[in-house]
Amino acid sequence: MKKKNIAPEQYKDQKVESKGFLPEIQIQDFPIRNQKVMLCIKRRRWEVKPGNEIISRDWKLVQKGTRITSEFAAFLKGMY
Fold first, then answer.
1. Structural domain for 50, as ranges
2. Domain-embedded: residue 4
3. From first to last of its 80 residues, what are the pLDDT tens digits of the chain?
4. Which DSSP state fits 10?
5. Which of 19, 3, 13, 4 is nearest to 53 (CA)?
6. What is this structure's pTM?
7. Considering the domain boundaries, does residue 32 fall inside one?
């Protein structure tokens, strides 16, 4: 899954330029029909002009210390 070239909402009034992608993130998610699901996410990054600040969206998808989504981690924690 690649993000579309749409800058974060808080920077909509500023001039931003796409500068490619951050390293890919791979996470496991809820199984679908008894099949393992692996999500491969490539986050886009932008440069804010004229300050040359590099920005990207901060996704809180992955539970800290794991390679699974926060929701799936909560589900597993609730089972034990």
1. 9-79
2. no
3. 566 777 777 887 888 888 888 888 787 766 777 777 887 888 888 898 887 888 877 666 555 666 666 777 777 777 66
4. G
5. 19
6. 0.53
7. yes
| pLDDT tens-place string over residues 38-56 | 878 888 888 988 878 888 7
Query: Taking the CB of residue 50, how many other CB atoms lie within 10 A of it?
Result: 8
* Torsion, CA 27, CA 69, CA 42, CA 6, rounded to 10: 170
Q: How far apart are the first and last CA of the chain?
A: 32
Domain for residue 36, yes or no? yes
Domain count, the chain: 1
Write down the residue that tokens 């690649």 correspond to: 2
Distance of CA 34 to the CA centre of its chain: 25
Instruction: State which amino acid sits at residue 4.
Output: K
Residue pointed to by tokens 């089972």: 79
